[in-house]
Each structure stands twice: as C-alpha cells, then as structure tokens.
Amino acid sequence: MTNPDPASQHGIEPRQRLLDAATELFAERAFKEVSIREICEKAGGANVASVNYYFRDKAGLYRELLESILARWEAERERHAKLIEGKPPEEKLYLYVRWFIGNILEERADERDMLFGRILNREMSDPGPDFRLIVQKGMVPNWKRLMTIVAEVADLPEGNQAVLACTHGTMGQCLMYSSARKLSKYFGPPETHFTPETIDGIARHVTQFSLAGIRAIAQLNRESGAAGKAGPGCSGTPPEE
Amino acid sequence: MTNPDPASQHGIEPRQRLLDAATELFAERAFKEVSIREICEKAGGANVASVNYYFRDKAGLYRELLESILARWEAERERHAKLIEGKPPEEKLYLYVRWFIGNILEERADERDMLFGRILNREMSDPGPDFRLIVQKGMVPNWKRLMTIVAEVADLPEGNQAVLACTHGTMGQCLMYSSARKLSKYFGPPETHFTPETIDGIARHVTQFSLAGIRAIAQLNRESGAAGKAGPGCSGTPPEE
DNA sequence: GACAATCTAAAACAGATGTTTTATATCTAT
DNA sequence: ATAGATATAAAACATCTGTTTTAGATTGTC
Predict the structure, then answer these.
(1) How does pLDDT run across B193-203, given as a tens digit for each residue?
(2) Whose C-alpha in A17, A163, B4, B222 is 20 to 30 A from the C-alpha of A97?
C-alpha cells in the first residue's frame, strides 16, 4: 500500500533481475522498442506488473538503470584518465583514442558492467527519456577530456576555436566506426567483428590522421592571428607544399 | 475493387498530398514514430484508410517516397560530380566536403525537393524498412565518390587500405556535424542554426584537417611498404617532426 | 440519363503497449 | 500464532497502432 522501499527486507532479488534483463535489452534497442513484457520474460518470467511495482514506471526502471551505467562509466573514465596522466601529449592522444574506440566497438561488451559503451552509443542515435542526463554525465565529460588532450597537442589554449574544431574532427573519426559497424551488415563482406588487434590498427590510424590534422590546423591558426572562427583567410584550396 | 492504378484519370492529387505530408514527417522522425493518422491529418485531413488504398501499406507509401527522394539525390550527386570534374584534387576535396556538409546540415531544407539530406541522415541513425535500398543507392555511391577524391589526393590506388581508412576519417568528420546538431540542444548555447558562411568555415576546416591527415597517412603508407592494414610498424606515438 | 469504375468516409477490427486493479500468497514483528 | 505490511500473480483497462470492412459519394463513358 505504502510506496515500495528498495531497501526493504528482502525481495531485492527480482528487482535486480529486472534491472539486469532491461540493461541487456536496452543495450541493443531503444527505449520505445523494448516492451515491459519482454523485459519481464527475460527476467525469468517475472510478472508484467512488477516493473510498475518496483520502479513505478517503465521510465523509472530506465532511469535507475541509466544512473547505474553512468556511474560505472564515470569510474572507468577516471581510471583511464589517471592512467595516462603525465605521458606526452601524442601518446595521450593515442591512448585516449584506443580506449574510446574500444568502448564504442564494444570490446568486453560480454561483461555486463561494460555495457555503457553500447548504451551510450545507442542513445546517441536513438535518444530516449533522460537523454539530457546522458549527454551531461556521459558525453560532455568525455568530450572535454579529449579537448584537453587536443589542446596540449596543438599547444593552444582549451577555449580556442581551432581546438574545438579539431576535437570535433577527432571525435567524429572515432564515432564513424560505430556507424560503420551498423552499416557493415548492408555493405558487403567486411569484418563485422573487431578483434583487439583490429582496434589497435584503427586507433593508430585515427591517431596519425588526427595528429597531422591538429598540427596543420594549429599552424594555420597561429599564422593567421587566431582571430577568426575556423581557418579564416583561406579561400578553399590550401597552399600547395 | 481492382488494384488502384496511380495513372488513373484523376485523384492523384490527394495521393500526392499524402506523399508530400509523409515526406516532411519522415524527414524528422523515423518510420515507426510517424503514424498513418498523423500523415493523413497533415495531408489536409485525408481519411485514415487512404494510405492503404493508394499505397497498399504504410511501407508502400514509405517505399515510394524513398524512391523519389533517392532519384533526386542521385541527380544532385551527378550534377555536382560533373561540376568539380577536372579541378585539382585538393579543390575537389573542398568542394565535395562543402557540398556534403551543406546537404547534411540541411541547407535548402525548406525546399521539399531537398529533403533527401534530412531523410538519409535520419535513416542512418534510425533505419526503417528498405534501409538496404538507402545504403545501396544513397550512401555507397556517395562514399565511393569521396574515396576517389581521397585516392587522388593521396596519390594511391583506390583499393588501398590507407585510402579506405582516410575516406572513413574524412566522412566521419562530416557526419560529426549532424550528430553535433542533435546534441546542440542539450549542450549549451551554441549556434543551432547554420548559415552558409558557417558551413563554409566548417568545410574549410574539415578540408584542411583531412588534407594534412591524408598526406601524413599516405606518406607512412609509402614508407612502410604498403603491406599492412593501417599504419603498421607504428607503436602508437608517431615520430616527432 | 444510367451504368460501372473509381474515390471518399466512417466505423470496426485485431494486435500491442503501458498501466491499474483485484486477489492471493509470503513474510516479519509483536 | 496472528496481524499487518510486503510481494507475487492474473486479469482487466485504456490507448494507440496498422489494417479491413462496409457503405456512400463522385466521376467518366456509353
């Protein structure tokens, strides 16, 4: 009758089963695409009403699930941030890219604790409720982390427009591989499964590509007084070497 | 009673109204997210059954709509391909990027004939039925066009792995701006509306960034015998200049 | 003007969804 | 052991979806 307290004496077991089942389902499909009945069935045949009993809403279940995922994601992010602390900027960039792409491409996605990459990635293209939460606690911090590294590589202040644009570009390359994964089913025969070695290769490429790009942009930015928005004074085709 | 022929004497007017209304709705939301009733309402209060009458299915309506959009998209693509023919590779790259980002960012999206950018873009993150058609007729040709240009810039054969990876990277940067557009509502105050001048700036930046990236990767590729997949022999941090 | 094909309109149908209700079982605390 | 809160189960509800049916209006052609 009174509101159900999660910290009750017992009965937290089916609650957790619902969360676990929902997490796996929401990792693959969007909020609207997963039905309560499906979640319950996956949670060992729980009753359809149990979701409303424990979480009030379907949205309540999703919310709680997201907060858990985001907390783990934050921990993983900070763990890795500490790990690369003090290394030279170029190596930081590689390590970040390698780490990020690894998460995007769902390395270790078999461990349920590591599903945040999948969920964040899916939310990006198919936002549910609480998308604002995902952006703020999941994407922005990550994006800022890359921006700091790019600023170091470019040897420019973090607020600089060129740094911002280069961060955009580097991130875009990384995210491309999640789009490519989806498209790969429709394209042709390319490897749909990524091994750690494959990911290494991708990360190395993206790093090299981005390093050259960042340096070129930084150079242009310095030359032209760093006033305009993005590469002012350039009429389209760059000066040949 | 007999199957409805589109080329009937008259009555193609409400048919077209349905197509137009559906096009605008599907440009913003996915196939599943738009209901038949909504389409009919937008089409001047048409009856709910009219979609099934004219197009057999909801999927039939969508299919016909897509084919029309893809045809216009192909025409626009070939128009632009002819336009940049013969220009130097670097300028080709800029012109392609400028053109592509313009479409992605929905320049001229007020003209209904120009909605393909919006629809293709949405399909990319939220595929409906006939997604295979979209990929094959909408995305692949476009992607190949960029690959040809990248190969010219890199001075490498089109099949080369480095060219493939660089194409990926350049395309990724372009697509980033469509993601950014979605996120911009949740980020902060950044300009959510893109002017032609803004797009110019973005395209110039992406071009500069990619040019440096492509050249660096091509150089590495030549040095290391062009055997491995993506930048072999590099242990993560690149050689300092 | 009358017939037949075509188009429009309203209603009804079958299925799925999230949620609420009702009833029954289970457990803890007194 | 019994009372009261808590947990489970089944069913019913309201709403939305795409689709079909049925009936009525419109139209072109002979």
Answers:
(1) 788 999 999 99
(2) B222
